[in-house]
Each structure stands twice: as structure tokens, then as C-alpha cells.
Write a structure and sequence with these properties.
The complex is a heterodimer of chains A (332) and B (285).
Chain A (H helix, E strand, L loop, with lengths): L9 E10 L5 H5 L7 E11 L4 E5 L6 H8 L7 E6 L2 E2 L7 H7 E4 L13 H11 L6 H14 L16 H13 L5 E5 L7 H18 L2 E6 L2 H7 L2 E6 L2 E7 H6 L4 H8 L40 H5 L5 E3 L2 E3 L9
Parallel strand pairs in A: 3-8, 3-9, 6-7, 7-8
Antiparallel strand pairs in A: 1-2, 1-4, 4-5, 9-10, 10-12, 11-12
Helix pairs in contact in A: 4-5
Chain B lengths: L1 H6 L15 H23 L31 H37 L1 H15 L3 H12 L3 H28 L2 H8 L4 H9 L5 H23 L11 H8 L8 H28 L4
The chains are: A alpha/beta (332), B mainly alpha (285).
Chain lengths: 332, 285
């Protein structure tokens, strides 16, 4: 892992998450034990203060599980999460404090708000529970302020969620997360469920909040274009592992992992004179409860050879650019 | 919470949070109000005593003097139907409210915490579920002796499992929603999450079931009283009245018919109420 110049605000070290699977009938008939599902495998990450790290990968690659482990919603099976050098996973850390420093924004704006609470009630609750403001007037002022921060007219605060559109609901969720004045926000596909035109607005809001409030984001998405728009660095996940991590521009201009190349070549190219080499992937991602031996990507990789099947790959580094591929950084 | 909303000048009056009455709810409420008024006020205006036996007046058909006629002991059927209504509604309320509270609590705890808690609580529910409803009620009342208190106890012990199952199922699905996850990440206590975020979104089916259960309870009390295990004569009770009148059904149809109508009326009222509440309480959007 290359040394970062800043002290990391958030550090994830060797995090793995395994889910036990239930025995199904076929397991009983075949008298086999079910394989545990390895959702996240040995992920190491750092976030510098004020940075946005984009995390991309296809559905089921473990990116949401990783986000939830970091937020403390899942207990990591292995590995540790540090916030400003302090351990915030496993036992014996202050959950209340973690919630004031790290918040999460969810994908589905329709399920992320309690349908029975008005906007004001939803925003007041965290302020009251954590005692961040005292007295009705101060709390009401703070609610107004939060709503203005996310671009909602405070006059709408006595409305219930059903009165709002998807984009507005996502703004309410963001305001609720901001109520505790966190430093780190884990955004789990916050724009995937929105219309394209609304996506841009919400992404701009994220960017705006970052520069105004000095937030640090772990921005999870499956759309590289969305992530490129907002991230300084991008990590690509495949089957629970980080397969490539680099500065956003570097990743787009000089992708080293064949999976990243495939993802990039699948993006619509707005400039018709620019040709990218077409890399198409075959097949489905393997079952995370029985990953292939060797490099996890070898079954779908156009470059795979015997060495790839024989041995799992570590991340190879050139500067800040890491890629989990035997062929990485070989061309020059 | 409420005050902060009304304090702001921009906030509209709390119109949208006022119940928007829908037709079934309005009809059900109206029927219930009429029923309660009749049951509570009727006896005050009735010139007859529901318990007083007067063989000279026995088996009078409905007419100007006795609107619903008299029974074989000369008691005024209308007065008895109203007095019985009070008894039945009281029993039904207690026999629904207690199981509702116990069952909802158990269901919420089991569904929210899951794991071992859920397994233990739900196995208890399964054991009770394995016995037919009436068998269990009769066994409990039969063992403890017939009295209103024992009947409350028997119904509570037997009926809470239905509420526990309904609420647990709803809680299981509400628990998965992202607002509950968000609530946990916001550092709320489990109690706060259950009471403010989970239960309000999970309790509606239980409330609707409670309305239906009022009717079921009245019928069950009727059955128990018929077997001599419920309300003891001479206390008027709709089921007892129907049972008493069955010997005279061809000569004096009114003895059984009017309490029967009362049960039907009450059933329709609560069914409409349940239907209307379902519409009213279901979250929008």
C-alpha cells in the first residue's frame, strides 16, 4: 500500500465479510455443508479528509456490503475499520460517536424515509436524540437550515414523504444524514434509482456539500460515468475484491485490469472520433460462495493464462495505481 | 413535535394529518355510535327491568307495549337486547384489547430482534396454535371455573398468538426497509426504533384484525355461554338469549331473532370500521 501524504480520515484494513448460508434441501440430500458466501474479501482502503472515493462494480460484487460493514451495520468477519486512527468496528467502540461522524445515504429514496414522519419530524429526531440543539426554537431553526442546505424550501417541512418526488426524497435523506454533522458519508448508490436529469442535480448537491462542509465520501455506484463525475479516486470491485484502484483520470486513461477495461469500453462514448478497443465480457460473475481458484476474474478474462488459474493475484502497484492482475503495468 | 410545526408561519394548518373519513369508516363509526348510544342510554329510558320475571306477560309478540316482544319468562326482549349489548361489548373489548397489546408486543420483539428470541417466542406461539381455539378456551374456563374473569383470561391466553403472528410478519418486512437501517445508523435506541419507526408501519393489519376479532369474540362468548361456561344467567347476553329462544323459535321467533340482528348489526359495524381503518392507516406513497 503506497503511503498517503495525508493521514487517512477513514481506513479499512483487511476487511472481509462472510455470510453463513442456510442448508438447503440439496445440501441435506447430498450431505454437504453449505459454502459460506464471501461477500467482501480482504479489502483495504483509505479515505483522505475531503476526498471522494468512488467504488464501482456490478451488482452482487459486495460494494454495498462493504459500505454497510464500514458503517457498522454489519459486523466484519475479519479486518478492522479505523476512523482517525481509532477502531470503529468489532467490540468496544462508541456507536453513538460513530453515528455522529459517519452517516450513510441509501439507494431507494422511497424506502429510506419513514412514511409516517413529516420532514420536520424526521430531521428533528437525530438532533434531539443526540442533544445537538436544545429548545424548540433552536431545533426548528436547525431543521430549516438543513432543508435550505439540501435545496428544499423549509416551508415544506410539515409534509409527509409521499408528497415528494424521488429526487426531493433523496435530498431529505441527505439532510437527515447531515443533521448529525458527520465528516464521512457513505453513499450507497444514491442516484441509481433517480431519473437521469435528477441524477445530475443530486450529484451536484453532493459536490456542493463536499466543498461547503468539507465532507468525505465513499461513493458507491455501478455506473462509472456517475462516479467519474464526483470522485478523485476510484476503486473497482469484482467478486468481493478490489481489482483496481487509482486516481479517477488515471483509471479512465490507463486502466490496467482487464475488468476495468471491459467496464470502460461498455460506456457509451460521446465522441465518435474516439475509438476504444472493445472488450466484451462473457458469462456471468461467478457465485461468491464458490469463487474460482486463482485469480477471481480468470474465467471471464480475455487475457487469462495458466498462471492466472493457478494463483490468486495480489494488488500490484505503480505509484498510487494498484491493479490485481498479473499483466498489470507490463506494457511499458 | 406538533407545536414546532404549527409555530412556523409557512406551515399549513394540520389539515392533511386529520383523518380523511372514507365511506366505510364513516358508516362504521356512525353504526358504532348508534349502537353505543342505544346500549348506554336505552336502559335509562326503558320502563322494564331486563331481569324481572313476569309470567303474565310471557311470549308477547312485538307490539306497541313490548317493541321486540317478551320472552318465555315475560322479560322485555328490547330491554334485554340492550342490556346484553353492554355486556357483550364490554367482554369483546377486554378480550380484544388485552391480546392485542400482548400479541403486538411479542410479535414486535420477535420480528425486530429475530434470532433466538424470535425462535423461542414463535415456538410458544406454534404450540398454542396447534390447539383448536374453542378446545383451548373451553379447557381453560372449564378448569378454572366459569366466570367473566376466567373468560377474559382464557381469551387473552388464546387470542394473543394471532396478533403476535400478524405483527411479527409485518415487522419482518418493515425491518428490512432502509429507514430502519438509517434509524440504526443515526444511533437511535432499539426501543425508539420499534415504537416510532417499526410499529407505526406494522400495526395496521393488527388493528384491522382486532376489528374482525371483536365480532369473532362475541360469537365465541355466545358459544361459551351456550355451553354454560360464559356469561351466567340471568345476566343477559346475546348468545344466551338466542340459545334460550331456540325452544320457541316456531311460536315466538322474536326471542332469538332480535339478539341475532344485534349480533349482525355489531358485526357489520366493526367490519366496516376495520375496512375503513385499513384505508385510513395505510401509509401513502
Amino acid at each position: 500500500m503506497p503511503a498517503s501524504t495525508d493521514t487517512p480520515l477513514l481506513e479499512v484494513r483487511g476487511l472481509s465479510k462472510t455470510f453463513a448460508q442456510r442448508r438447503s434441501l440439496s445440501h441435506i440430500v447430498m450431505s454437504q455443508a453449505p459454502h459460506p458466501l464471501q461477500a467482501v474479501r480482504n479489502v483495504t482502503l483509505t479515505l483522505a479528509p475531503g476526498e471522494t472515493l468512488g467504488l464501482v462494480g456490478e451488482s452482487g460484487c459486495g460494494k454495498s456490503t462493504l459500505g454497510r460493514c464500514i458503517a457498522g451495520f454489519h459486523e466484519p468477519t475479519e479486518g478492522t475499520v479505523f476512523l482517525r486512527g481509532e477502531k470503529v468496528s468489532g467490540d468496544g467502540y462508541d456507536r453513538q460517536r460513530l453515528s455522529r461522524e459517519l452517516q450513510m445515504i441509501f439507494q431507494d429514496p422511497y424506502s429510506s424515509l419513514n412514511p409516517r414522519l413529516t420532514v420536520a419530524q424526521a430531521l428533528e429526531e437525530p438532533i434531539r436524540v443526540h442533544g445537538l440543539r436544545r429548545g424548540r426554537g433552536e431545533i426548528a431553526d436547525r431543521v430549516d437550515e438543513l432543508m435550505s442546505t439540501v435545496g428544499l424550501p423549509p416551508g415544506l417541512k410539515s409534509q409527509l414523504p409521499h408528497a415528494f418526488s424521488g429526487g426531493q426524497r433523496q435530498r431529505i435523506s441527505i439532510a437527515r444524514a447531515l443533521a448529525l454533522e458527520p465528516d464521512v458519508i457513505i453513499a450507497d448508490e444514491p442516484v441509481s434509482a433517480l431519473d437521469v436529469s435528477i441524477q445530475a442535480q443530486i450529484l451536484n448537491l453532493f459536490e456542493d456539500l463536499r466543498s461547503r462542509l468539507g465532507l468525505t465520501y465513499l461513493f458507491i455506484a455501478h455506473d462509472l460515468n456517475v462516479v467519474r463525475h464526483i470522485s478523485q479516486r476510484i476503486a473497482v470491485m469484482y467478486l468481493g475484491e478490489i481489482v483496481e484502484i487509482a486516481d479517477a483520470d488515471q483509471l479512465f486513461e490507463d486502466p490496467q485490469h482487464p475488468y476495468t477495461r471491459a467496464l470502460l469500453s461498455a460506456l457509451p462514448q460521446p465522441d465518435p472520433t474516439r475509438r476504444t478497443e472493445a472488450v466484451s465480457l462473457e458469462g456471468e460473475p461467478p457465485d461468491p460462495s464458490s469463487p474460482p481458484s486463482g485469480c477471481a476474474f480468470n474465467v471471464r478474462c480475455p487475457l487469462a493464462h495458466d498462471a492466472c488459474r493457478a494463483q490468486a493475484q495480489e494488488l500490484r502497484w505503480r505509484g498510487d495505481h494498484g491493479a490485481r492482475c498479473i499483466e498489470a503495468f507490463k506494457r511499458d | 413535535m406538533t407545536t414546532t410545526i404549527t409555530e412556523t408561519p409557512t406551515a399549513s394548518p394540520r389539515q392533511r394529518r386529520l383523518p380523511r373519513l372514507n365511506p366505510p369508516l364513516t358508516a362504521g363509526l356512525a353504526m358504532l355510535v348508534i349502537l353505543l348510544a342505544a346500549v348506554l342510554l336505552g336502559p335509562l329510558f326503558s320502563p322494564y327491568d331486563p331481569l324481572k320475571v313476569d309470567f303474565a306477560e310471557a311470549l308477547r309478540p312485538p307490539g306497541a307495549v313490548h317493541w321486540f316482544g317478551t320472552d318465555n319468562l315475560g322479560r322485555d326482549v328490547l330491554t334485554r337486547v340492550l342490556a346484553a349489548g353492554l355486556v357483550d361489548l364490554q367482554i369483546a373489548t377486554v378480550c380484544v384489547v388485552l391480546p392485542f397489546l400482548i400479541g403486538s408486543t411479542v410479535g414486535a420483539v420477535a420480528g425486530y430482534f429475530g434470532g433466538l428470541t424470535d425462535r423461542i417466542l414463535m415456538r410458544i406461539v406454534d404450540i398454542l396454535w396447534a390447539f383448536p381455539f374453542y378446545v383451548l378456551v373451553i379447557a381453560i374456563v372449564g378448569t378454572l371455573g366459569p366466570s367473566t374473569g376466567n373468560m377474559y383470561l382464557a381469551f387473552t391466553l388464546v387470542v394473543w398468538i394471532s396478533f403476535a403472528r400478524i405483527v411479527r410478519g409485518e415487522v419482518l418486512s418493515v425491518r428490512q426497509s432502509e429507514y430502519v437501517m438509517a434509524a440504526r445508523l443515526l444511533g437511535y435506541s432499539h426501543l425508539r426504533i420499534i415504537l416510532r419507526h417499526v410499529l407505526p408501519n406494522a400495526i395496521t393489519p393488527a388493528i384491522v384484525y382486532a376489528m374482525a376479532d371483536v365480532v369473532l369474540t362475541i360469537l365465541a362468548v355466545t358459544a361459551l355461554s351456550f355451553l354454560g361456561l360464559g356469561v351466567q344467567p340471568p345476566t343477559p347476553e346475546w348468545g344466551v338469549m338466542i340459545a334460550d329462544g331456540r325452544n320457541f323459535i316456531f311460536d315466538a321467533w322474536w326471542i332469538s331473532t332480535f339478539p341475532g340482528f344485534a349480533i349482525i348489526y355489531t358485526g357489520i359495524a366493526f367490519t366496516l370500521l376495520g375496512d375503513g381503518l385499513d384505508d385510513l392507516l395505510r401509509p401513502k406513497g
